[in-house]
Amino acid sequence: MSAHLQLEIERLKRKLLALSALVEHRIHEAVRALHTRDGTLARGVIDGDSEIDQAEVEVEEECLKILALYQPVASDLRFIVAVLKINHDLERIGDLAVNIARKALAFAGQTEFQFPFDLVAMSRKTEAMLHDALDCLVHLNADQARAVCERDREINDMKRNLREQAEREMRERPPQIPLLLRLLGACRNLERVADQAANIAEDVVYLVHGEIIRHQPGAGTQRENGE
Known about the structure:
Number of strands: 0
Distance between the termini: 41 Å
Shape: elongated
Mean pLDDT: 91
CATH superfamily: Phosphate transport system protein phou homolog 2, domain 2
Number of helices: 8
Order of helices and strands: HHHHHHHH
Helix content: over 70%
Low-confidence stretches: 222-227
Structural class: mainly alpha
CATH class: Mainly Alpha
Radius of gyration: 19 Å
């Protein structure tokens, strides 16, 4: 690897890790806004989305510049490909943070509404899964990344259980259906954050070993998730 290419790759790593930290922080703030019914915090997450979008564009431009100028091969090319995928996943997580924050706005000032199920447990597990996926990226730990992928099933099961509870509440308390639908939407967004975290973990395995695992049993999440 040339010295110039090495410098470019190191700069790209720093940009990607900075974006990772920003996205993780925004998810945490969005979830906190929902739990605490903090409209100001929720608006801050929504208003900050452009910062994530800009950072995502900058990372992509860096990747394209390296491909054009240095035509990397082997592990260097694999690194650029993985960064492009992870970069997209991070931007999607930023979008999901905005979605959660928008739902949090609906609960700002709704002090009389009681959450009918434990959303805190699901959000904590989702945040932990995202944190660990990004930690795998920092340390290029493929074994830990595989373990992160396995945890996606648990989040899916939690979302399914919460959906069933929400549906029961809708039948018993029809006037609260609009708020219950927003809460259910937040659960769906959290599940999709977990899907994106699993995608990142899969990309870490690819980055370290050159192995594509997303179609293997137990590792599958779809890279694109519709809103």
